[in-house]
Amino acid sequence: MPDLAPVFTELRQLLAPYATKLAATRDDAQELYLDTRHLQKNKKPLFFGAVQVKKSYVSFHLMPVYAQPELLAGASPDLLARMQGKSCFNFKTVEPALFTELAALTKAGYASYQAQGFVP
Fold this sequence. Notes:
The protein is of the alpha+beta class. It has one domain. It is 33% helix and 28% strand. The protein has 4 helices and 6 strands. The protein has a 6-stranded antiparallel β-sheet with strand order 1-2-3-4-6-5. α1 (5-15) runs parallel beside α4 (96-115). The chain is globular and about 40 Å long.
């Protein structure tokens, strides 16, 4: 079984700056889960993103790319190869270049949510 702690630590650092502006519903050694304070029609908060340790990889979820797929227009083929579904990226090792790209994508996603009035 791979040591996923370094991967989680690095990916968590990408979401951590947004935790003060959003609602962290879970923040521990296995997961950082962030909701916005914007309530949807179903009265539940709008999901922003999460980092989760799974059995053999670490998942990085970024909901803004699901809501606005055009955010992925400039993404590298290597980053897109890490995608599972429409808003999840999986990693087994620390990949600095992809994490830098993912940080920029997270920033763009937050800006997209800001423009739509979902976050401050």
